[in-house]
Request: fold
Amino acid sequence: MSTSDNQTASLILIGAGPGDPELITVKGLKALQKAEVVLYDALASPELLAFTPANCKKVFVGKRKGKKAFSQEEINQLIVFYATRYKCVVRLKGGDPNIFGRGHEEIEYAIKRGISNITVIPGISSSIAAPTAAGIPITKRGVNESFWVITGTLSSGELSNDMKLAAQSSATLIVLMGMSHLAEIIQLIQTHRSMLEPMAVIQHATTEHEKMVRGNAATLLTKVIQEEISSPAVIVIGKVVDESYLFDQINVQHEFQHTTIKQNKK
Amino acid sequence: MSTSDNQTASLILIGAGPGDPELITVKGLKALQKAEVVLYDALASPELLAFTPANCKKVFVGKRKGKKAFSQEEINQLIVFYATRYKCVVRLKGGDPNIFGRGHEEIEYAIKRGISNITVIPGISSSIAAPTAAGIPITKRGVNESFWVITGTLSSGELSNDMKLAAQSSATLIVLMGMSHLAEIIQLIQTHRSMLEPMAVIQHATTEHEKMVRGNAATLLTKVIQEEISSPAVIVIGKVVDESYLFDQINVQHEFQHTTIKQNKK
Reply:
């Protein structure tokens, strides 16, 4: 494989968004529509693959039932394999490719092998879309000044160190991949904030299966068990969670959520 | 104006994205295409207004040359005025409406006046898109576990308190509206992290005017002055900034950025 081959290769890394297929960007959709090859993960929005041309090769490189189809090294090699043989190769990842998505690792590998024509198209991360779709503002004037997005679980399986620091701050906390450490996270919030700190868990955000429970550091765990909320879910912590009760107070919460969710479907 | 009038009213709050008009979501674009009224701010992507129907009323409610066309209270009243008289009223805001965007304040006002059919469509925040388009991963395995998005300037004009806490953490920091406090922010980073902490400033992200300077806590201020970078710009702080040099090392940085930016234009 010569360097000159690689220099004509083209690779487009696209964020598919949080679940609702219509929450992909216009630019992302246009790139899908001209893709010759798509390498895709286990997406929250598999409907997006239908927008590729009929003869597009669709290569699944994600996890199914917790089992990886390929190792990260193999995925990197597959990307380069296709990007050096086809003119338009798309790597489609859920959410935003640069937020806990290993997108940059894959680009790095491709660049080091001579792929130079690379475009990155951002996507809406579930960390942003989940609270928004559930009526929780991420920031609100007079309530908070910042938000902190954290991965709950490190590749070692342990709780992130940043989680301990974050509990001590006043930022809105948005925790991805944190459900297996939920009890430990609640303990940190009880210690460093208060028993009454508002918290919410949102599962399958922006899809028809969306489900949310809200409470505080004292009540959330019981509610999560009662409502049978499980992974993948986004945990939101902070006073902004209480802003979503606005929709209850005037008895339109369900209508509001229903409207949002219904319109989120194709 | 009766309550029953208000109950048939419909309001759609849309995030326009970071600048590149094609970075709006498919769902956001579809809503624009059926809008009877659009209330819009001074957008980084005014081209989006061209997607509204020919007879759509376009009401500018943003700032021009630092001067507000309307107060927030007047904007709230205008939204309700139109939402009770037209079937499809769109409120179009830059970035994501729930990230420092006062979107929730406007919905709150509308709900309290009986508007119950409300949809919120998230957008890509410049806090996410600016680093991504500049080749900086927001998180990278083995480098960091979280990111913290902060408004640099409070409505009082002062530096945010969270900024002082954030400097003490190890999170990637993304500061919006922070340019007027840049020297103070750098001072905090020098004190709590190090003189060598990587930093970048990105102006007009995802548009043809995009401009970036990179350095560290010791060098950034001089570079920003030399390159004449000004507001609005996004400040990125943390070791992930250095990951973007990858594109320099193989001499495709400009090609990469050029590709990204070129494809970001319509």
